[in-house]
Amino acid sequence: MTRDLPWDNLYTTCERLAEKYDPGRLRPAERLRGLWIVAGIEAPQFALFEPVMRRRPFSRNWKELGPIQEAESRAAAVLQEGT
């Protein structure tokens, strides 16, 4: 099974952050917000969820909410504070 490109970018970013910090601290995740499924970087122990993209239920097309590098830097800042 292959991942689509936006989800693959999110997953790769989470892996890169996990290598730099603790691997058990963050993961790619999806949340239902209103009528949208929002995907982002999640670190549950810090109550962190950085949204990266969204889509409608039953749709395969993701819409980026902003550059993934910005979400990565915000997540890294929270993880640095927590360590």
Which SSEs are present, and which pair or pack?
Elements: H1 5-20, E1 27-33, E2 36-43, E3 48-55, E4 63-64, H2 68-82
Antiparallel strand pairs: 1-2, 2-3, 3-4
Helix pairs in contact: 1-2
Number of helices: 2
What about the largest sheet? 4 strands, antiparallel
Query: Can you tell me the residue ranges where pLDDT is under 50 for at least 5 consecutive residues?
Result: none
> Order of helices and strands, N to C?
HEEEEH
**Which strand order does the major sheet show?**
1-2-3-4
Shape: globular
Given helix and strand content, the structural type is: alpha+beta
The number of E-state strands comes to 4
What's the end-to-end separation, in Å? Answer: 35 Å
Report the sheet-strand fraction.
Answer: 25-35%
Helix content: 25-40%
Determine Rg (CA atoms, Å). Answer: 13 Å
What's the overall average pLDDT, rounded?
Answer: 88
From the structure above, extract its key features:
globular; single chain; 83 residues; alpha+beta; four-stranded antiparallel β-sheet; 2 helices
Give a short overview.
The chain is α+β, with helices and mostly antiparallel strands and 83 residues long.
What would your notes on this structure say?
The protein is of the alpha+beta class. It is 37% helix and 30% strand. It contains two helices and four strands, in the order H-E-E-E-E-H. It has a four-stranded antiparallel β-sheet with strand order 1-2-3-4. The protein is globular. It starts with a helix and ends with a helix.
